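Lecture notes, part 5. Sequence design as translation. It can be helpful to think of inverse folding as translation between two languages: the language of shapes and the language of residues. The source text, in structure tokens, appears below.
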């Protein structure tokens, strides 16, 4: 079965029910600018939620959470993969650091497929950190 953007939030909520209220808030029609499936905010929200849970010492649903991410990586259509292959894992790393959690603590729950995506996010994160500290630039030297 191919998973589409409309399938993502229900899958993530099934894995981590405490994510449901955040999804309801993100997609609430009464919001000034409601988000919609496929705009990336479900990935940001889920990454932040998992980092917040780990910071609070609550990892009970992490096997289910990362099984859902694995399923997105294996069965997601191109749009799902664009969001969850790199963006989700990069957001997870960034939010973990914001919450004073070592991002590597998530590695114990990663499957081989997720580990490959995680490695890409680690490289992107390192590039961002180098640029932020002025040690690298994409600007061309003439």
């Amino acid at each position: 079965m191919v998973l589409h953007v409309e399938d993502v939030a229900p899958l993530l909520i099934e894995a981590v029910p405490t994510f449901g209220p955040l999804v309801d808030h993100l997609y609430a029609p009464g919001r000034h600018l409601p988000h919609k499936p496929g705009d990336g905010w479900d990935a940001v929200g889920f990454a932040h939620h998992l980092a917040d849970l780990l910071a609070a010492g609550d990892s009970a649903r992490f096997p289910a959470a990362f099984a859902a991410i694995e399923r997105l990586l294996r069965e997601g259509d191109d749009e799902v993969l664009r969001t969850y292959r790199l963006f989700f894992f990069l957001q997870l790393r960034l939010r973990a650091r914001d919450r004073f959690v070592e991002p590597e603590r998530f590695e114990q729950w990663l499957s081989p497929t997720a580990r490959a995506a995680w490695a890409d996010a680690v490289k992107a994160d390192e590039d961002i950190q180098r640029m932020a500290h002025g040690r690298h630039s994409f600007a061309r030297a003439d």
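The translated text above is only one of many valid answers, since several sequences can fold into similar shapes. Residues 5-132 form one domain.
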